[in-house]
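Notebook B, p. 112. Complex prediction, attempt 2.
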Amino acid sequence: MAAESADPTRILVAVNQSTIKGYPHASISRSGAFEWTVKKIIRSNTSGFKLLFLHVQVPDEDGFDDMDSIYASPADFMIMKHRDRIKDSSFGVAGEAWVKKGDPKEIICHEVKRVQPDFLVLGSRGLGPFQKVFVGTVSEFCAKHADCPVIAIKRNVAETPQDPVED
Amino acid sequence: MAAESADPTRILVAVNQSTIKGYPHASISRSGAFEWTVKKIIRSNTSGFKLLFLHVQVPDEDGFDDMDSIYASPADFMIMKHRDRIKDSSFGVAGEAWVKKGDPKEIICHEVKRVQPDFLVLGSRGLGPFQKVFVGTVSEFCAKHADCPVIAIKRNVAETPQDPVED
C-alpha cells in the first residue's frame, strides 16, 4: 500500500515577486511555502520527491523591463540559490528551476499543463477578512483551474510585515 | 534542512458520504483523496505521518436519522476499515478515525481548529465547467476558511460514474 513507487512525487513550487514592491523583489510568502513543503511533506524522504521551482516574473506595466536584464536579476540569484540547495548533498532533493514572464495565474496554469506535476504549492498571504478581498486571487484561480491538486500555504499573521512594501 | 522533525506530519482527511445518494453511502471522490495522499505524499515514509480520518455524516433533512443507528452504519465499517488498515503493519501509518454529524464545511473547519492538523485533504469531483457551478463548495469554503493548508484532490473525469446516484 505505502510502497515507494518508482517515480518521485513531482512538486511544482510557484515563486513570484512582491506584488506591491514589484519585480525583482521576492515575495516573503512564497519562501514560506517552500520551507513548509520541505518540513511537512518531504521530511526525510528526499529521494521520494522532485522539486520544480517556477519563478514568475511580471512584466513592467509600461513595457520597459529591459533595465532588469542588465542586472543579474534577483530571480536569477534565487534560482541559483535553489540550484545550490538542490546540489547540496545535505538537502538531497532533485530539482529544477526556471523563469517565465507574464500573468502569474495564467503562467502557473500553463506550466502545470506543460510539466504535469503531481501537485502545486502556492504561497498566499495570511490576511484579515477585509484584505482578503484584494489578494489571494492567484491561489484561488489556480485551485480552481490548474490541472493538478493545489495546496496554498497561508502565512501566519505574525510573519506579515507591518509595511506592505516589505512584502 | 530536510531532517526529520520529532513530530509526524498530521494529515486530516475529511471523508463524507455521497451528496446525491445520501448517508450512509460513501462518496467515491473521498476515497480517491485518501489513496492519492498515501501514494503521493506519504509514499514509503510511514513513520513521518499521522492520518486523521474525519467522517462527516449529514443529518437527514426531516430529522429522522434514528434508523441509521439501528444498523452498524457503513460509516462505522469505513472507520473499522481505516482502523484495520492503520493497525496493518504493512501500511504502518499511525492514525485515528471518528465521526461528526452536521454541515460538512462547518464541521471540517471546526475540527481543523480543534485537532490542528498540518494540512487538510479533501476530495472534490472533477466535473466540467458547467457542473462546477453546483459542486465543490465544501472544498472552496474550506480552502478559504480552514485554519490550515488545504489540498483538494480532483477526481479524473474517467472515474466519475455515469449515473450521479452512484457517486
